């Protein structure tokens, strides 16, 4: 067993507390990751958070945590608009970075973040919890194993209702709010995983909240070889999360959940089993096969995967993830522009 990765948390938002609940004090706390410090812009807030979650040290500024020699890596759960700034500062301070999704507001930010990490010799990883679920490994195995042939079409959706609409950072444009960045980044991350590349052009339509952010968005993504994907996201609907992946030889259905449980009911956090089904054939008469998978917290899976790549200095794995993250950031940027300008937009890529 490797030494636990000494992690500091930049910020005390609700998601930071949930992360600690899953990684530090949950029913199965991690032995690979140890949260050693937390920072807030207010000392009192950091002290209260540390006491609640059993964290040994707290800091009254983000800069102080980055100067803490006991911290080897940081987790960034800050508002979307602050991800690039603090990931770059953390990298320059010699800290590895696990950053909440979406990594960046646009492609330029994402490229700058990875450039800073490479120059500093540290690892930067975007933290989509569902990416690290065992069921995602099984999904990738099905795709690479040819279970449905070549994927030709993906439809992916995620939506929910805001529990407390006012005030809520998800409705604040200055903090990177909106359905696309908050919810839409999830189905987009699945589309990128399945297709293996960014689309060449997109067309999006949105419904706008009074604050100016998109409350709902739907889009069509066109790929260079004629393949297509459709994406939907919303913050004014019943919670739903589902993807349909259609190949030339079969079909996959999945909920691509962040956190999973073996229990259909009674899990303390409300987690449910993930659905992953495959039809290996083109006929409607071919039955779907359910693929079982191990379950658990996506926060914990992500944190431990991050700890492993840091310990192994697995640059190849980080570069694969970086390529996906940059494609996602570029596509988010194009989708936002398309919705605003009401026209088709080309996606900036390295092609």
Task: Describe the secondary structure blueprint for this structure.
Layout (H helix, E strand, L loop, with lengths): L4 E6 L3 H10 L9 E7 L3 H11 L3 E3 L2 H5 L6 E4 L6 H10 L3 E5 L6 H14 L3 E4 L6 H11 L6 E11 L17 H17 L5 E8 L5 E9 L5 E7 L1 E12 L3 E4 L21 E4 L9 E2 L7 H15 L2 H27 L3 E2 L5
In words, what does this structure look like?
The protein has 351 residues and is of the alpha/beta class. The chain has 2 domains: 137 residues, 3-Layer(aba) Sandwich (Rossmann fold), CATH 3.40.50; 183 residues, Dihydrodipicolinate Reductase, domain 2. Helices cover 34% and strands 25% of the residues. It contains 9 helices and 15 strands. The strands form 2 sheets. It has a 9-stranded mixed β-sheet. The protein has a 6-stranded parallel β-sheet with strand order 3-2-1-4-5-6, sandwiched between helices. The N and C termini lie far apart (41 Å).
Helix proportion? 25-40%
- Strand-pairing-aware structural class: alpha/beta
- Rounded radius of gyration (Å): 20 Å
Identify the strand order in the major beta sheet: 14-13-12-11-7-10-9-8-15
CATH superfamily assignment of the largest domain?
Answer: Dihydrodipicolinate Reductase, domain 2
Q: State the CATH topology of the largest domain.
A: Dihydrodipicolinate Reductase, domain 2
Q: What profile does the largest beta sheet have?
A: 9 strands, mixed
Percent of residues in β-strands: 25-35%
Detail the poorly predicted runs.
none
Number of strands: 15
């Amino acid at each position: 067993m490797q030494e636990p990765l000494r992690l500091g948390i930049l910020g005390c938002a609700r998601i930071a507390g949930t992360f600690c609940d899953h990684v530090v004090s949950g029913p199965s706390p991690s032995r690979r990751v140890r949260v050693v410090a937390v920072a807030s812009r207010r000392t009192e807030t950091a002290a209260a958070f540390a006491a609640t979650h059993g964290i040994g040290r707290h800091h009254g500024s983000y800069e102080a945590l980055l100067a803490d020699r006991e911290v080897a890596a940081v987790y960034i759960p800050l508002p979307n608009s602050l991800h690039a700034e603090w990931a770059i500062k953390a990298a320059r301070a010699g800290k590895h970075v696990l950053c909440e999704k979406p990594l960046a507001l646009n492609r330029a930010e994402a490229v700058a973040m990875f450039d800073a990490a490479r120059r500093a010799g540290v690892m930067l990883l975007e933290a989509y919890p569902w990416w690290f679920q065992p069921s995602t490994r099984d999904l990738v195995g099905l795709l690479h194993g040819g279970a449905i042939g070549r994927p030709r079409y993906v439809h992916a959706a995620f939506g929910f209702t805001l529990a407390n609409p006012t005030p809520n950072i998800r409705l604040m444009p200055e903090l990177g709010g909106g359905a696309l960045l908050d919810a839409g980044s999830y189905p987009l991350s699945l589309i990128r995983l399945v297709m293996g590349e960014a689309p060449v052009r997109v067309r999006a339509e949105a419904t706008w909240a009074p604050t100016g952010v998109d409350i709902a968005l739907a889009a069509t993504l066109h790929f260079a070889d004629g393949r297509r994907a459709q994406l939907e996201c919303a913050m004014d609907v019943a919670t739903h999360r589902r993807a349909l992946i259609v190949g030339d030889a079969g079909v996959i259905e999945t909920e691509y959940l962040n956190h999973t449980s073996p229990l259909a009911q009674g899990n303390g956090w409300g987690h449910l089993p993930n659905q992953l089904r495959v039809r290996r054939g083109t006929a409607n008469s071919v039955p779907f096969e359910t693929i079982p998978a191990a379950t658990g917290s996506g926060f914990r899976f992500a944190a431990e995967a991050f700890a492993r790549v840091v310990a192994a200095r697995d640059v190849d794995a980080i570069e694969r993830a970086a390529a996906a993250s940059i494609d996602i950031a570029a596509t988010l940027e194009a989708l936002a522009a398309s919705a605003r300008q009401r026209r088709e937009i080309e996606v900036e890529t390295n092609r």
